[in-house]
Amino acid sequence: MASNGVLLLFTFIHLSIGHAAFVQLEVRAENVGKYGQQSLLECVYIHSQEAEGGKLIWVNWKKEGVEEALLSFHKGSTTAESGYSFAEPSWNTTNRNVSLLITSTSVKDQGEYTCDVMTDSGAGIKNIRLTVTAKYNKPAIKFDPQTSTLMCDSDSGYPEGQLRWFDEFGTEWTKSSQMEAKKTESGLFNLSSKLTLMDGSTFSSYTCKVFNVSGGKEEEATYTVQEPEKTGRAQGNKVDGTTKVVAPLVVIGSLIIGLLLLMLLLYKRRSQLVRRFSIRPLIMGDHQPVDPCDSHVEQGEDQSCPDSLA
Ligand SMILES: *[C@@H]1O[C@H](CO)[C@@H](O)[C@H](O)[C@H]1NC(C)=O
Ligand SMILES: *[C@@H]1O[C@H](CO)[C@@H](O)[C@H](O)[C@H]1NC(C)=O
Ligand SMILES: *[C@@H]1O[C@H](CO)[C@@H](O)[C@H](O)[C@H]1NC(C)=O
Ligand SMILES: *[C@@H]1O[C@H](CO)[C@@H](O)[C@H](O)[C@H]1NC(C)=O
């Protein structure tokens, strides 16, 4: 019994020394994960030469503020929360690459992690930080003619970014705008910004750019103000609306007038024919003195006309 106790004590001392000397963890302390994509938190342990061949006892991956281990290997079996696994596809105890793979990175995955490894020849523990980013969508700009306001929306980014306005000459108008950042259920941000156009200070185009938290431009969109200016455009729309109603009326009106004219013409012709038959001699008599004159005019003998009349 006594020898057993000595053996235990000896093992304990051996492990304590090993802790410091025989196992080293190689990690990258700072990592950036992309939202919705895989994230790799690297952790590889190496033995010193004296400890070569040491057997793995456990691996524990924990996250700050989370009680349960996300991934652990202990007493020959691996347990993992869903969405977490060893990065090596068919990891076993002979593989010293115990890196953690996060299948689909979300905003809540951001934080401090610890990779904790114990072997029979030593132990090691290291901190790893994961920062999550999500690129903002291309902005969409809408114009509200009622309030003469441009509205720019850019969604689903992380961390909180900024929307900025520029005119076609590159002058910034952000100070005249109001921005709002809404946090979505998934922890991402939806940005929206309003820029009210003042009368007489309207440029022909406005660009809305989305910048990430570190000031890098991600996306942009340009809105071209319709010519003539906004108020004119609203009136133009009204005219268009009126035209739509008036146009058919004009067409129908012209048709009716045309029809009436045609009827009048036909009526006149008919009455002329009737008159020709009934009072033809009288008309002929009326016209006779003029007719030769006309024929002479056509021939260019202006003078002969009054002569013949006389
Ligand atoms: C550990 O394994 C992962 C997944 O296979 C790989 O991407 C990474 O490069 C490995 N790290 C080292 C140091 O071998
Ligand atoms: C561990 O994996 C390696 C390579 O994937 C394989 O060659 C080896 O046989 C495996 N060992 C055990 C104990 O499963
Ligand atoms: C944020 O934007 C996304 C994509 O446009 C949309 O589906 C979601 O409803 C928005 N959430 C909020 C809180 O505005
Ligand atoms: C911000 O954008 C710049 C340029 O696109 C990029 O290099 C940087 O990594 C981004 N930073 C973040 C926190 O997304």
From TrEMBL:
Alphabetized InterPro entries for the sequence: BTN3A2-like_Ig-C, Ig-like_dom, Ig-like_dom_sf, Ig-like_fold, Ig_sub, Ig_V-set, T-cell_Activation_Regulation
SUPFAM superfamilies: Immunoglobulin (SSF48726)
Stretch forming the signal peptide: 1-20
Membrane topology: Single-pass type I membrane protein
GO BP of this protein: cell surface receptor signaling pathway; cellular response to lipopolysaccharide; immune response; negative regulation of T cell proliferation; positive regulation of T cell proliferation; T cell costimulation
Key words of the record: Cell membrane, Disulfide bond, Glycoprotein, Immunoglobulin domain, Membrane, Receptor, Signal, Transmembrane, Transmembrane helix
Region (Disordered): 290-310
Boundaries of every Ig-like domain copy: 36-131, 146-224
Sequence intervals crossing the membrane: 245-267
Compartments reported by the entry: Cell membrane
GO cellular component, one term: external side of plasma membrane
Name of protein: Ig-like domain-containing protein
